Amino acid sequence: MPPREESEESERPLLSGAHDSEEDTLDETAYDSSEKVVIVGIEDGDDGDWSTAPPFSWKKLWLFTGPGFLMSIAFLDPGNLEGDLQAGAIAGYSLLWLLLWATAMGLLVQLLAARLGVATGRHLAELCRDEYPKWARMVLWVMAELALIGADIQEVIGSAIAIKILSNGVLPLWSGVIITAFDCFIFLFLENYGVRKLEAVFAVLIATMAITFAWMFGEAKPNGIELLLGILIPKLSSRTIKQAVGVVGCIIMPHNVFLHSALVQSREIDHSKKGRVQEALNYYSIESTVALMLSFIINLFVTTVFAKGFYGTEQANNIGLVNAGQYLQEKYGGGFFPILYIWGIGLLAAGQSSTITGTYAGQFIMGGFLNLRLKKWIRALITRSCAIVPTMIVALVFDTSEDTLDVMNEWLNVLQSIQIPFALIPLLCLVSKEQIMGAFKIGPVLKVSCSLFYSEPG
């Protein structure tokens, strides 16, 4: 390969010499070139001026749409639903403002993760492996794995609870865990038919959540004025501190930062052209914003349903993911289609979608930090085993202890908030380094703003 001209090299927003040497091709990558979606116009071979992004195109926006919605699933997993329902039942509408701002800051962090992945062509775990000494990257890897296992326990347990609800209790919690552990391979099998097909499956699951929880919102008929006041007026009391920290922890998932920086590499981007990189960033920003707006609305539905039905009642402190369906059934009745099963369907969609994205995140985290070149099904088996073993233990121990299981889920949300710095600090450090990001590095104001917000969650 002939050497690049100096003028072209100076504009290249990649790590110096990245991916061009034969040695680098042996490194773990998020997607092989054959798996990537080709964007219209990128492979045209034209010799135009690509120093700026091309004009907006709806067709290209559609082709770039996908990674942001997969990323948004972490904002809708059973851990989020647990945080939503407990925030609504215990704090009423008073934490809706925090839900809004946590989602907004989550969007900012995810856009930075996407920026890192697009501008460098590598994801966060890979860059941590190269940029940090061995002891530091091992600490970051262990923390990322702990955060992922904690999230995965909630996701798998959430699916198992939904299966138990929809089977009228015939299938116990542990059997639901086994079903969830194996059905993720069905979804991974779909990836063989292309990234877009898999993204379509996730779109169906997100739509299922939106429809079911919107149905519940309509059944509950929450107070519109109180809802708006809860969004617009910040309010926090000592009684709701744990719920507030849980809201932040379940919205901002550390493993999701690693995931999004890898997902954006599923599109073929010519990194030698600054305008093409900027174009990708623009489209990813739009689709991620739309995806997280939808996730906020869905979380809002869940929070307000439980705020309307249980805030200020004796059941408020006892309600959790395990018994939420039964409480909803007692409060709102059966109707044409019992709300218990509506809740179960939405919870199942949340659990199934989040377990798959969790599997993806686990593959990227383990492969990136350890530079493992394994077949995808082997990596999936390893990452699923890391989560399924502790989840099965939890299911067997707590199957008959609903209160204890709900308390555990609540504290797992708090764990996520504690783990945030171990993903956020490397992200901010890397995305602000010119030798890594080139022209796409962020400024000090944005870096400090993110640091200040997450230094005091809630």
TrEMBL record:
Extent of the signal sequence: none
InterPro entries: NRAMP_fam
Location (main, coarse): membrane
Annotated keywords: Membrane, Transmembrane, Transmembrane helix
Origin: domain of life: Eukaryota
Gene Ontology cellular-component annotations: vacuolar membrane
Topology of this chain in the membrane: Multi-pass membrane protein
Pfam families, alphabetized: Nramp
Stretches the record annotates as Disordered: 1-29
One example of a Gene Ontology biological process annotation: defense response to bacterium
TM regions (residue ranges): 96-118, 139-163, 169-188, 200-218, 290-311, 332-350, 356-374, 381-399, 411-431
Localisation: Membrane
GO MF term set: cadmium ion transmembrane transporter activity; manganese ion transmembrane transporter activity
Record-linked PANTHER family: METAL TRANSPORTER NRAMP3 (PTHR11706:SF109), SOLUTE CARRIER PROTEIN FAMILY 11 MEMBER (PTHR11706)
HAMAP family: NRAMP
Family of this protein: Belongs to the NRAMP (TC 2.A.55) family.
Record-given protein name: Metal transporter Nramp3
Species, as recorded: Vitis rotundifolia (Muscadine grape)
